Amino acid sequence: MKRIKALLLFTALVGVVTLNSCKKDKTTVAVSLTADIDGSATNFSVSPVALQGSVDGQTFTVIQGATSAGATLSITVAGAITAGKTYSDAAASDNDKPLFLYATSATADDYLNDDDDASNLPSITITSVTSTTIDGTFKGKVALTSGDMPVKSITNGKFHVNIQTHP
């Protein structure tokens, strides 16, 4: 009887060790930066990244990417990035106001934050921050900085990007 108990205990122990040592599937989420620009789904799939660095003691995070056709999107936030926080042009502090920059090509003029429509001010919400990635959503309007100032509407913006730190 002792032998059977010992054999059952050994079998259970081997089963536990075997099941615990199974390799767990680690799902890796691909980096992405997408938005609808004037209602057209746009994938900024060329090198989407979050660059972090400091200038004169001020920390900045720049979330950026480009399309295969050459359009670029860049969102800059001052200060430390905080999960669960929304940075908006409606904020009282300049450190909580994001800077949106959109260009249709490398040689085109830049569209920047459009503050004329209070219901569609540029904003970015950080949903998750780890030591290596940042996730979030964004929306708002941007205006061309020259000419008759045409406006582009950015909606349904989403990103999951890796962080690159630059001193």
Summarize the structure.
The chain is mainly beta and 167 residues long.
From the structure above, extract its key features:
single chain; 167 residues; mainly beta; 11 strands; 11% helix; disordered N terminus
SSE inventory with pairings:
Elements: H1 2-20, E1 32-37, E2 40-43, E3 46-55, E4 58-66, E5 72-78, E6 86-88, E7 99-103, E8 111-113, E9 123-129, E10 133-144, E11 151-165
Question: Can you characterise this structure?
Answer:
11% of the residues lie in helices and 49% in strands. The protein is mainly beta and 167 residues long. The chain has one domain (27-165). Strands 3-4-5-7-8-10-11 form a seven-stranded mixed beta barrel. A hairpin with a 7-residue loop joins strand 7 and strand 8. The longest helix has 19 residues, at 2-20.
Average of the residue pLDDT scores:
85
Radius of gyration: 23 Å
Name the strands of the widest sheet in spatial order: 3-4-5-7-8-10-11
How many domains would you count in the coordinates?
Answer: 1
